[in-house]
Design goal:
The complex is a heterodimer of chains A (380) and B (282). With 380 residues, chain A is mainly α. Helices cover 61% and strands 11% of the residues of chain A. In chain A, helix 8 runs antiparallel to helix 9 and helix 9 runs antiparallel to helix 13. The model of chain A has no long low-confidence stretch (mean pLDDT 82). The chains are: A mainly alpha (380), B alpha/beta (282).
């Protein structure tokens, strides 16, 4: 005689149905993710590693990652063979063989060469963005969590910051354009201005300090992205700070530390790993944003890398990198979406998307690695 | 009425300053801490968690604060080094706390300097996730002392005084979190005495420890008494009998009786005290 026999069958069945439903939804998400991943890999991997493509070829197409995007020239040569090559190669080809037959010449914008420019542009944008976002974000989080008296006003500040997260990225792009590109923010020291002085010109050291607009530049784009990622950074920093046990602060203060000494020596060092993990996640987010950089930094086609361009500007070229416009991966992919997809352009399209996906996945994996290391090292 | 109800009623009646009735009072000359008619509130004065506490703590001795949970002893001890300042709405509503003659809540007092002279050991031991050495040296480093020789010496002296040196001298660089609970609490004591405070406050230092670790810390308190004035809050009445010279009994925010430990536990003047120490309530 079993006193603990199952009583209600319908209740159990309901439970089983709900469990199954939740599992199905989860697996649908997994299926979508896998589908996207495999589709992109199938089309994009042969571009980077031609050994996997139909025609076969070298193991690693390093050209794709090291050359700048160029126009792709398609033509039929004397023997009726279809050829396609980037325009700089084409120029070299015609120079070497001046009487080669070129028929049915067709040019495809952006489809030749490689993606070195966009890759480096995205990397630079991310670096500028993260430096700005971390400085401002950590400062804000430390202030909100440690210094500000918790009341309604601080609650409003937090609400305002979280609302930033809901602003559409295209609006960020327009804001960045108006504020960073059009507003004179950059202090520049100039000599020999003569009578034609701008409104704000501070005389010093024989010349004047004037303010110039940033225009379409790396700095403007990076700062716009920084404003966009601020809510993520601030939220993550606050979480890291809150996770530090109260006992550390109390012990530190009881030994006669000032508030900043306490934060600097007994709180921030233990919050840093959490902040880093969160910032890598922030990077993953902004690396793929198109709208904020469309108006503020990115150009579709540029012949030279930012430092090559900056060096043309004279001897103090290093800071000038920040005022150059850049190419960027998301914008590069966006310009592609508008070009009709032919056999010739598809290589660049698929390859770009695949490389971009791999780049983002590497960042995400790095953040997971950081998080695991952080959990191992700091246990209290 | 049950014994507990009776005692609650008694506690609500206004209490004359116990020191006046005390046959063995501590004069201001011998006292290092004078608590003078102090009331304290956590909500800006709307309600008091401590009411009209008056007693003097003698120099160079161990004074125990006992009483059931919620009687205000932890609150009082945290007033002595102004740790309650961390709660924004807390304030001393009446009276003064004087340490070495100075009202510690006066505007000219810097709480940082106060805390360097009045150290605290907490109930839950809280060493930093740093090395043993860095934990003990922490208080000196934040005062700007960088000289390695000085730090080395101070660390060794403090660890010896805390009866921990022999156990950690070969692993000063290892993480403090790798020590046992009792060792970590002794490390916290070493850390506190490294800055050479005059007074050491201990808020139930043994409540998170096993009996053997507790016994070692009690031995330590007896040794430290020679150099520091110690005020210890304890839940454990037997511990109070073992370590302290004077004991103050609190109930519901009021000081019920304050006398030599032997008197409090052997021959208390107030019936409430007798009820508590004999376990009739608590």
């Amino acid at each position: 005689m079993n006193p603990f026999k199952s009583s209600s069958k319908t209740q159990k069945r309901k439970d089983a149905i709900v469990a199954g439903f939740l599992a199905v939804l989860t697996y649908i998400i997994l299926a979508c993710t896998l589908f996207i991943f495999f589709d992109i890999t199938k089309k994009g991997l042969p571009v980077i590693m031609p050994v996997f493509s139909e025609q076969g070829g070298e193991v690693f197409n390093s050209d794709f990652l090291t050359r700048m995007p160029e126009t792709l020239v398609e033509f039929t040569d004397g023997e009726g063979l279809k050829k396609s090559m980037p325009s700089s190669d084409f120029t070299a080809y015609t120079k070497k063989n001046p009487d080669a037959v070129v028929e049915n010449k067709k040019t495809n914008a952006y489809s030749g060469g490689g993606i070195a420019g966009p890759l480096i542009g995205t990397a630079l944008l991310v670096i500028v963005c993260m430096i700005a976002a971390l400085i401002v974000g950590v400062a804000a989080a430390v202030y909100l969590n440690e210094y500000a008296s918790q009341g309604r006003f601080v609650g409003l500040i937090r609400l305002a910051i979280m609302n930033l997260a809901g602003v559409p990225s295209i609006v960020f792009g327009l804001f960045g354009f108006a504020f960073f590109c059009l507003f004179p923010l950059l202090p520049v020291f100039e000599t020999g201005l003569g009578a034609d002085l701008p409104k704000i010109a501070i005389p010093m050291f024989g010349g004047h300090l004037v303010f110039k607009t940033l225009g379409n530049s790396l700095l403007a784009g990076g700062l716009t992205l920084a404003v966009m990622v601020l809510p993520v950074i601030i939220a993550a920093c606050e979480e890291s700070l809150k996770a530090i046990p109260k006992g550390f602060r109390e012990a530190s203060l009881a030994l006669g530390a000032t508030k900043w000494q306490c934060i600097r020596t007994a709180v921030l060092p233990y919050a840093t790993p959490g902040i880093l993990t969160a910032s890598v996640l922030g990077v993953t987010r902004v690396a793929g944003e198109t709208a904020p950089i469309m108006f503020t930094a990115a150009v579709a086609l540029k012949g030279k890398l930012p430092w090559q361009d900056a060096q043309d500007n004279g001897i103090f070229w290093l800071p000038d990198i920040f005022t150059e416009s850049v190419q960027a991966m998301p914008y590069h992919i966006y310009t592609f979406a508008k070009i009709p997809r032919t056999e010739a352009t598809s290589a660049m399209q698929d390859g770009s998307v695949f490389v971009f996906l791999v780049m983002v996945m590497l960042f995400a994996s790095f953040s997971i690695y950081l998080r695991i290391q952080y959990r191992k090292k700091l246990k209290w | 009425m049950s014994a507990t109800d009776e005692n609650i009623e008694l506690a609500k009646k206004p209490v004359a300053a116990r020191e006046a009735n005390n046959p063995n009072p501590i004069s201001a000359k011998d006292a290092v801490i004078e608590v003078d008619n102090v009331s304290f509130s956590y909500d800006d004065g709307k309600s008091n968690v401590l009411s009209n506490i008056s007693f003097n703590i003698p120099k160079g001795k161990v004074t125990a604060l006992i009483g059931p949970s919620g009687c205000g002893k932890s609150t009082l001890i945290r007033c002595l080094n102004r740790m309650n300042d961390l709660v924004e709405t807390s304030k001393v509503t009446t009276g003064q706390i004087r340490i070495m003659g100075q009202d510690i809540n006066a505007a000219e007092v810097d709480p940082i300097e106060l805390r360097k002279q009045v150290g605290m050991v907490f109930q839950k031991y809280n060493p930093f996730p740093k090395s043993v050495y860095e934990n003990v040296a922490y208080g000196l480093r934040i005062q700007g002392i960088k000289n390695k020789g000085r730090l080395d010496e101070a660390v060794e002296v403090s660890l010896r005084r805390a009866a921990l040196w022999n156990e950690v001298k070969d692993r000063l660089g290892s993480s403090a979190l790798g020590l046992s609970g009792g060792q970590q609490q002794r490390l916290c004591i070493a850390r506190t005495i490294a800055v050479n405070p005059r007074i050491v406050l201990m808020d139930e230092p043994c409540s998170a420890l096993d009996p053997i670790a507790t016994a070692r810390i009690e031995e330590l308190i007896a040794e430290l008494q020679e150099d520091f004035t110690i005020v210890i809050v304890t839940h454990n009445m037997q511990q109070a009998t073992r370590v302290s010279d004077r004991t103050a009994f609190f109930y519901l925010g009021r000081l019920i009786e304050y006398d030599e430990t032997t008197t409090i536990f052997g021959n208390p003047s107030v019936s409430q005290t007798e009820d508590y120490v004999s376990g009739r309530f608590g």
